[in-house]
Amino acid sequence: MILCLLAMVVFGILGIFSAKYRELAKEAFGCFFNTIQLKPCDSKLDQRIKSTLIAKIMKLSPGLARMTYKNFAVLSWIFTILFFASMAYSAYSVYNLVVYGSCNPGSYCIFNPNANVTSGNTCNITGKFIEFYGAECPHCHNMIPIVAQVENETGVTFEKLEVWHNDMNRELYLKYANGIMVDCSLPNNNTIAVPAFFSLKTNRTMCGKKSADDLKAFIATNG
Amino acid sequence: MISESELERIRSDFPILKNGVGGKPIIYFDSGCVSLRPRQVMHAMNEYYEEYPACAGRSIHKLGKKVSDKLAEARRTFAKFLGARKAEEVIFTRNTTEGINLVAHSLKFSKGDVVITSDREHNSNLLPWQLLSKRSGVEHKIVYSTDNMEFDLEKFKEMMNDNVKLVSLVHSSNLDGYTLPAAEIVKIAHENGSLVMLDGAQSAPHRQVDVRKLDVDFFALSGHKMLGPAGTGVLYGKCELLEEMEPFMLGGDTVQNSTYNSYVLLKPPEKFEAGLQNYAGSIGLAEAARYIEKVGKEKIEKHEHELNKLISERLLKIKSASIIGPKQVELRSGVVSFNIEGMNFHDVAVMLDENNIMVRSGQHCVHSWFNAHNIPGCVRASLYLYNTIDEAGKFLDVLAGIARLR
Fold first, then answer.
1. Domains (range + CATH), chain B
2. In which domain, by residue range, is A187 found?
3. Which pLDDT tens digit goes with each residue over B61-95?
4. Angle B217-B222-B226 (CA atoms, 0-180°, nearest 5)?
C-alpha cells in the first residue's frame, strides 16, 4: 500500500508534465484505493516497482539487494515518511517565500534565484556581520536599499549600529578601528569612517558606498 | 540438437535477436506465448502488400489470380506440414481459439452428448465447452491427471462410452509442456465411436505432428506460436466431417449462390472462411511452416529437450525452486514452469526482465488448474529453436541470484 501511496504522489506531480506519468498515477491511485478497501492491488504496480528496484540494486550489490528485499516494507515506510516530511518542509518554505520574501528568513533559501553570491555559496556562511553607520551620513542612507537587497538575496542580516551618536556602538567600533583603518586605507587618527561593513568572523572590513555585488562578495569571503 | 553454426544462422534471421532492446541483447524465453518471427515471414507478408494486395477467390484480374494462387499454395504447404490428405482439410482461422470454437459451434451436438477434456486445458479448450454445456445441455467431463501429472489412460478408458461425442485435449500443455499419448487416446476414443480434437498450439510448432498417423479428427493451431504472424491459425478437420458440419459464421465467399431466403454453401474449407481473409497472414504462416520444416521438426524437438534438460537439472539444484509438471524432463518438451519458494512469481519475472530475460508469469490461461491446486501462479520459461545453451546459462545464473534474495 505504502508504495502505491508514494507512487501516486510522485507520479501525480510528474503527471503534470507528462502523459506517461498520468497513466501511472491513475494506476497507483487504483492500487491505493483498492488497498484501503482491503482488496489486492490488481495492477501489480507495487510489485513491479519493488522488483524493478531490487533487480537494479542486485546489479550493483547482491548483498544490498538482499537486505532491501527482506526489509522492503520498513524501508518503504522510512522513505515515505521522509518524502512527506520534505514535502511539508518545502511547502512551508514556499509559504515563507511568499509572505516574507525568503523561504528561510535569515538563512540560505533555495527558492531565491539570486541567492548565489559572486563567489562561494551563502549555504556555507556562518559568520555575523555588522554595518556601522552614522545617522546623518549620506552614503549610509544611499546604502539602505542595497543592504536590504543583499540581505533578501543572501539571507544574511547586518546588525546595524549607529556610531556618531551612540557611545556604546562607537566604543565597539573603536575596538576594531585599527583593522578597519587598514582595510579601508584610512589614516589611523580616530576617524569614525562610515558606512563600514564588518565581519565578526574574520575581523575584515569594507568601507564606503558599495554595489550589491561587492557586498555579496564580501559576505561570501568573510562569512 | 541444432549445431552451433546452424543456430548462428537461424538467429541471424530474427532481427530482434540481432538488435536487442535498447541496444542490449535479449534472452527470449516466452515463445509459449508468442514466438519471434524470422525476416522470411515478414518478407512474405510484405510481398503480398507490395506486389499483389488484392482479394482471393473473387476478382478475376491478375492480382486477384495471384492472391488466389498464393493462398492455395499456402494451404497446400500447411496440409503437407500437418500430414493432411487434402489441402481442403486446412481451414485458415485467426488462432487456435477460433479453431476450437468453430468445432464447438459447427459440430452437431445433442442434449446428453458428452465432451471430455483434460484437467489442464487452456481457457480456449475449456470455456467453449462450458458455454456449450450451458446452452445445449451437453455434458462436459474432465479426465484428471495422475499424481505425476501425466494423462491417466485408465481413468480415460473408464469414462469412455457411447455418449462421448468428442474428446478435446491439449496435445502439449502450455502449463508444463507435457505431451499426452495422442495416438493411444485417439485409438481408444475411436473404438468407442467418439471424435478427437487436439489443441496443437504448443505441439505443432515444436514437434513432428502427422494428423493422418495420429488419425485425429480435428487439430487446431496458432500461427503466432510457430514463427508466424499474429491473428493467424489453422484448423485441420477430416474432409468428411467438415462436409457434414454447418459453418457458425456466414458471409462473403462462403456460398455458391443465395436468394432472398436461401443459400447454397461452398465446399470446405471456403464455407468456414467467411468474409475477407487475412491473406498476408496466411501466406506468412505458410512461410513460417516452410522455415520450420527446413530446420527440421525433430531437430527442433531435440534442441528444446536438451535445453530443458540443462535448465531443469540446474534449476532443481536451487533448494527453493520447484518445477510444475512431470518429474521426467523428457515429458516436458521445451517448457519449464517453476516457482521459487517464498517469492512471488511476478517479482521473479520482473527481476529477470530487468536483465533482459523475457519469461511469462501468472496462470498462463490455465486458471482452472491453478485454482484446483490452490497455487497462485508460476514463472514459465518456454524455449524455441533460436535459444542457446549460453542463454540458458545466463538465465540460471540470474535466477540463482534472485533465489538468494530470500
1. 4-30+296-403 (3.90.1150.10), 42-294 (3.40.640.10)
2. 122-222
3. 999 999 999 999 999 999 999 999 999 999 999 99
4. 115
Residues A95 and A138 in one domain: no
Distance from CA of B359 to the nearest CA of A (A): 14
Give me the residue from A44, A54, A70 closest to B351, CB to CB: A54
Closest Cβ–Cβ partner in A44, A51, A66 for B351: A51
- Report yes or no: B326 and B176 within 8 Å, Cβ to Cβ: yes
A55/B404 Cβ within 8 A: no
Query: In which residue are the cell numbers 536590504 written?
Result: A148
* Facing residue for B347 by CB, picked from A50, A66, A70: A50
Among this protein's residues, is B55 annotated catalytic? no
Q: Which of B33, B55, B239, B365 is the catalytic position? A: B365
Count of CB atoms situated within 10 Å of the CB of A35: 17
Neighbours of A191 (CB within 10 A): 12
pTM: 0.78
A48: in domain: yes
Residues A137 and A61 in one domain: no
Domain count, chain A: 2
Measured between alpha carbons, how far is B119 from B169 in angstroms, rounded to an integer? 9
- Contact call for A65 and B355, based on CB within 8 A: no
Q: Is residue A126 exposed (0-12), middle (13-18) or buried (19+ Cβ within 10 Å)?
A: exposed
To the nearest whole Å, the CA of A127 is away from the closest chain B CA by 50
- Count CB neighbours of A183 within 10 A: 17
Residues B301-343: pLDDT tens digits?
Answer: 999 999 999 999 999 999 999 999 998 999 999 999 999 999 9
